[in-house]
TrEMBL record:
<feature type="transmembrane region" description="Helical">
    <location>
        <begin position="166"/>
        <end position="192"/>
    </location>
</feature>
<dbReference type="InterPro" id="IPR035906">
    <property type="entry name" value="MetI-like_sf"/>
</dbReference>
<dbReference type="GO" id="GO:0042884">
    <property type="term" value="P:microcin transport"/>
</dbReference>
<feature type="transmembrane region" description="Helical">
    <location>
        <begin position="222"/>
        <end position="245"/>
    </location>
</feature>
<keyword id="KW-0812">Transmembrane</keyword>
<dbReference type="GO" id="GO:0005886">
    <property type="term" value="C:plasma membrane"/>
</dbReference>
<keyword id="KW-0997">Cell inner membrane</keyword>
<keyword id="KW-0813">Transport</keyword>
<dbReference type="InterPro" id="IPR000515">
    <property type="entry name" value="MetI-like"/>
</dbReference>
<feature type="domain" description="ABC transmembrane type-1">
    <location>
        <begin position="131"/>
        <end position="346"/>
    </location>
</feature>
<feature type="transmembrane region" description="Helical">
    <location>
        <begin position="9"/>
        <end position="30"/>
    </location>
</feature>
<feature type="transmembrane region" description="Helical">
    <location>
        <begin position="327"/>
        <end position="346"/>
    </location>
</feature>
<dbReference type="Pfam" id="PF00528">
    <property type="entry name" value="BPD_transp_1"/>
</dbReference>
<dbReference type="GO" id="GO:0055085">
    <property type="term" value="P:transmembrane transport"/>
</dbReference>
<comment type="similarity">
    <text>Belongs to the binding-protein-dependent transport system permease family.</text>
</comment>
<feature type="transmembrane region" description="Helical">
    <location>
        <begin position="280"/>
        <end position="307"/>
    </location>
</feature>
<feature type="transmembrane region" description="Helical">
    <location>
        <begin position="135"/>
        <end position="154"/>
    </location>
</feature>
């Protein structure tokens, strides 16, 4: 197993390199870079995401500078070229593309992600600052999803074809079909002062007077703020796990060893939880790391925006819009590395739970 883990770790290096290289090329070719945005802000020109969607790129637009020369940056009309050169030095664009790429790789090997272009903070500090929000959403969503999906999936498998199985499947599919942001808006309208009840807060992870509250009051305030965001995330997340649990249990229930166990006089609960449960939960348990990372970093963007939660999803989105390259590449590098490690942990978990699985022999 150790040789398999070593090979997988070595395989992460070209994978990371390929992802970083591809995204470096795409980001560098995209219009509306940091120099262009700074020029736009200097002249009071709109530099939002929608204002840049016009099909042009930095290299396709030539404007006259104050000394009569031309620049590749939109918004450089009448600007002192020395000031533009200073901006290029500030953002690292005074160096050729290949040199910038090499410096990027060299610093990332040392886990030095630099400082944000537009925020007075390092990339690491920004990620650490936003991490509690994403951890709160991801952790409680994952716990609730597993607490709901596994018992529900087992119940559906045991009562397969019954009225409960039919209507619960319908409810699960409807919940899966509704986007989480749409359900979040519905929760706001109903319970956050939209049109009916004003029971839950609409902004932030804690109240303004959080530090003044007692320990119990802080816990209550924390979950009071998390109730609607977590509920919106859970609704669209548990369908896949519920159906996976049901199908794996159905597959195990129909196997010969279950018939043998019943013939020996074991009760249905002894058969179900003493024999079937251990085998059926292999896929579900081994898939926990991947499910956790998915909920943490891919399913929280719209929820964070709607409920004004300043987490990693919102940070990544704003960084792409603002062309804050250090934050974009830093978060991409960390998330990609975490995803690769989590995938390895998932495969190792398979082998630990079921010794019959041997990825090393297969590879």
């Amino acid at each position: 197993m150790w040789s398999y883990i070593l090979r997988r770790c070595l395989l992460m290096i070209p994978t990371l390199l390929g992802i970083i290289t591809l995204n470096f090329i795409i980001i560098q070719a995209a219009p509306g870079g940091p120099v262009e945005q700074s020029l736009a802000k200097l002249q009071g020109i709109e530099s939002s995401a929608t204002s840049r969607v016009d099909g042009s790129s930095q290299g396709e637009v030539k404007v006259n500078l104050s000394n009569g020369t031309q620049s590749q940056y939109r918004g450089a009309q009448g600007i002192d070229p020395e000031y533009i050169k200073e901006l290029e030095r500030l953002y690292g664009f005074d160096k050729p593309l290949h040199e910038r790429y090499w410096l990027l790789l060299k610093s990332y090997v040392q886990f030095d992600f630099g400082d944000s272009f537009f925020r007075d903070s390092s990339v690491i500090d920004l990620i650490l600052d936003k991490l509690p929000v994403s951890i709160s959403l991801g952790l409680w969503t994952t716990i609730l999803v597993y607490l709901i999906s596994i018992p529900l999936g087992i119940k559906k498998a045991v009562t397969h074809g019954s009225a409960f199985d039919v209507w619960s499947s319908s409810a699960v599919i409807i919940g899966f079909a509704i986007p989480n942001f749409l359900f979040a808006l519905l929760l706001i309208v109903l319970f956050a002062g939209g049109s009916y009840f004003d029971w839950f807060p609409l902004r932030g992870l804690t109240s303004a007077n959080f530090d003044e509250l007692s320990t119990f009051g802080k816990i209550k305030d924390y979950f009071w703020h998390l109730a609607l965001p977590v509920l919106a995330s859970v609704i669209s997340s548990f369908a896949t796990l519920t159906l996976l649990t049901k199908n794996t249990f159905l597959d195990e229930i129909n196997k010969q060893y279950v018939t043998t166990a019943r013939a020996k006089g074991l009760t249905e609960n002894q058969v179900l939880y003493g024999h079937v449960f251990r085998n059926a939960m292999l896929l579900v348990i081994a898939g926990l790391p991947a499910a956790l990372i998915s909920i943490f970093f891919t399913g929280s963007l719209m929820i964070e925006i709607i409920f004004s939660l300043d987490g990693l999803g919102l940070l990544g989105f704003e960084s792409v819009i603002n062309r804050d390259y250090p934050v974009v590449f830093g978060t991409l590098y960390i998330f990609t590395l975490m995803g690769l490690v989590i995938k390895l942990i998932s495969d190792v978990t398979y082998m630990m739970i079921d010794p019959r699985i041997n990825f090393e022999a297969q590879s």
